[in-house]
Design brief:
Blueprint: E1 2-6, H1 13-24, E2 27-30, H2 31-39, H3 43-50, H4 52-66, E3 72-75, H5 84-93, E4 96-100, H6 103-112, H7 116-119, H8 128-146, E5 149-152, H9 158-169
Parallel strand pairs: 1-3, 1-4, 2-3, 4-5
Helix pairs in contact: 1-9, 2-4, 3-4
Bound molecules: shikimate-3-phosphate.
Amino acid sequence: MIVSLIGYRGCGKSSLAPLIADRLNWQAVDSDRLIEEQAGCTIADIFNDHGEAEFRKREAEILEQLYAEDQIVIATGGGAILNSQTCELMRQSGPVFWLSAPTEELIRRLTQDSSTTNTRPALTDLKFEEEIRTVLKRRIPVYQAVSDFEVLTMNRKITDLAEEILQQIQGWTPKMRTAVKEHTS
Ligand code: S3P
């Protein structure tokens, strides 16, 4: 089984994955970091030099390799759910957790994170806040459709979030899914 964490930039996927993995005695994997390791450069460089489409291709390839593994917690990139095949692999492999937060909260977190400008390439030609509002609005239905559980992250301690996710994982089976969700992007 593989546990997937999905959600917009700044929702806490990369911080939470190791906490959950440690408790399960599994490995935590951050797909963005793997892409950077394989490319020998940053994600921002890949966007700059080759464009977003090339990044998405590499992202889908890395995730396909990861979903062939077992007992890992994957912190996916915020846009990984844009690929329907990735979503299928994710859902076939185990429970999918959407780490959600109100738009204003995500704007606040991303503004406060000083590394944002260097590490998070623009996804549109829109201004910073407008981009978050626009992209998030488009993606929320997809995060919702692909995930088995929504985890509200606002004003919650990271250790409590890990605990909530661990409880959901215990005894989880695909049969718990009440309906087959379709990828709706
Ligand atoms: C992206 C999110 C980033 C990274 C890339 C694109 C997106 O990952 O994959 O910059 O499209 O939302 P994080 O969500 O880990 O920041």
